[in-house]
Request: fold
Amino acid sequence: MKKILTFLTLLTSLTLTGCTNDGVTPVAYTRFISSGTQYVFYTSYVYATANGHIQVWKDFEESERQFGSMDIMFTFSKCDGADDLDGNRYILVDLSDKTVDFTVDILKSSDIFDVNKKIYLNGEALTPSQIDGADSESDPLYILTFTDITFTRTNTGGKIDNTKVNTLEYK
Reply:
């Protein structure tokens, strides 16, 4: 009897877990708002984990150079690929954990780098939980780490809501 109750409890908890979020992985369609000649590329890799990146280059030519350097790279720890919506490309940030952790690597030698600039999500400045490379002149990167950031879910109920996309800016 004890084994049957344990099995039923486990089965019920797994069923309820699967029913959260309408049985659909919650995602935040997220893109970087570029300026000038910037070229933005969205990648998602699935190895041990599903990482996603938004890579920002000075221009398309720089992205095609053999040893070209990105100006900015956003790295998300959980992503579900990239997709197009309304003529724009987005990375699908996984919201299963409700909040998002991500890093932003900015090349210090880039024309756009400015220690006073901030990362914005949907028009609001974000405060990094950690900053690396600010005090070292030998470190080529300025790395901002953001933890427990709330993104807007784009696919509530399994349907895409074009008004609930997420935009990142560096200004």
About this structure: Residues 1-19 have pLDDT under 50 and may be disordered.
